Amino acid sequence: MSGYLDNESLILYHKKSGRVYGFESESAALLLQIDELLKENSVDEIYSKIPTVPKAILTSFSKFLLCNEELGKEVYEPPLNIGIYKDDEKKREKFSTVPLTFFIEFPKESLKRKIYPLVEHLSRHSRTDKAINIDFIKMSEGNYWQILFNGERIAAPVREESLPLLLQENMIIAYYQSKPYLMAMHAGAVKYGRHSLVFPALSGSGKTTLTAALVSEGFDLYSDEIALLGYDGKLKPIPFCMNIKEGSWSVLNERFPKLEKQQAFLRFDGQKVKFLPPENLAKENDTVSMVIFPKYEKNSECKLERLSSCETLKRIKDAGYQLEKPLSEENFESILSHLLSRPAYSLSYGSLEEAVGRIKDLCSG
């Protein structure tokens, strides 16, 4: 696998299949020429042989050689240790998502009132192949609780007001790790007609607020937090609550009247969060149509700009993602063809309504 960067595009050449992504004809030929030269020459030596290619491009290209730098060296997510499910005699309530069922024991009523809002939308009757018993153990000092999945400790103990958020985070991980997946991106994802959109972004970019606003406009929801891409290249819905941070409550109250009365919980970083059940949850998997990187900037105009494949890859990496397995040529080929080959845009905005309108226009075009 090799790559070539310039200011406009990224070319990736897969030697086994002979497929070239990005430029074609002359540029593709140049790619192969540089690829061969890099085996035995330094960047300066190549520049003397091909002086028409800027040295900065050659330097970027040499660093981006996937077979030397990236391939096989990506950090991938280890499986969550959830122990082995055993049917016990404890009084538990059942909450199901295909293919996983959670059996929860609530040790006290006040804790149940906190946790129930994040699971009450889940099925109470579905039968699935995999199951997890969830228990909460009160620590001896302070108001701290430990979460157990099938008897195994999942994370460090947290205060009761942060327990629901930590629980949902690990339920989501257990959910998407319960079946094979190619990539789990830190991104919102929605569907509108024949278009499925992914919104990778760092925390604080307005990703969840934009996703929720689109859902209120009739978009189907895949997730506000994790865009899950299968090996078939299709997005898969994650049926858990949207987490709305305090700064977005007033913005979304009119779109979601129930939000105002929802209980608030404390996140690990001190921010307050409310849960919103996943409305309009997507009913089927679909391929990615567009990748949009949102960024809320107060009082800024709404600006949509097309991105190169190179910038798309960089921004996805910056936003964060997980792989089920270490990166291989076959897996990267799938990411190329199902994600990086799609149209990608940056979207900066100060008005949520304008951002929603711009995305609708994209989907209608």
Automatic annotation (TrEMBL):
InterPro entries: P-loop_NTPase. It comes from the Bacteria. This is HPr kinase.
